[in-house]
Specification:
The chain has helices at residues 3-41, 45-53, 56-88, 98-120. The protein has four helices and no strands. It is elongated. 12% of the residues are buried. The protein is an all-alpha fold and 151 residues long. Helices cover 69% and strands 0% of the residues. α1 packs antiparallel against α3 (56-88), α1 (3-41) runs parallel beside α4 and α3 packs antiparallel against α4.
Length: 151
């Protein structure tokens, strides 16, 4: 393989791995924000939980978490498919051209846009009757998560 082909393959791998890192960074920012809010609210969370869950900050952080997770997942899927393709065609000489650069950039753009759309649609007011925000039963905890705070 020529040096240009090696650089193109390296660019594609670096771009996809950077996109995975971006998704993981979004999830890390979400977790850090939730930890800070948990520290600030402390034992008052139980009294303010419904106000918090309906706030724009909660919606924003939930969307950030979802976008980050989906970007990482979709990018790892594309990277895995690409590597399986390269392994299955290991003895074939394929020309790597500028077309591959554009295809990789297009995949990255599609991944990010798809993740944003999938994450934002459930919090749009147009679809609020279609998506369920949560499920809870009074005095029954078998279907809901246990909160480690005394309410």
């Amino acid at each position: 393989m020529s040096r240009l082909q090696n650089n193109t393959v390296l660019f594609r791998d670096i771009l996809l791995i950077t996109l995975i890192a971006f998704g993981d960074l979004l999830v890390g920012l979400y977790l850090l924000s939730i930890a800070i809010i948990d520290y600030m609210k402390g034992p008052k969370y139980c009294q303010e939980q419904f106000q918090w869950r309906g706030s724009s900050w909660c919606l924003l952080l939930g969307s950030i978490s979802s976008i980050g997770s989906q970007v990482s997942l979709f990018t790892m899927t594309i990277l895995s498919v690409y590597r399986v393709y390269r392994i299955s065609n290991i003895f074939q000489r394929t020309s790597i051209s500028a077309k591959w650069w554009l295809v990789t950039l297009a995949f990255c753009l599609v991944i990010v846009l798809t993740s944003i759309v999938i994450s934002v649609i459930p919090v749009m007011s147009t679809f609020e009757d279609f998506f369920i925000n949560g499920l809870g039963y009074k005095d029954i905890t078998s279907f809901v998560g246990m909160i480690n705070k005394h309410c």
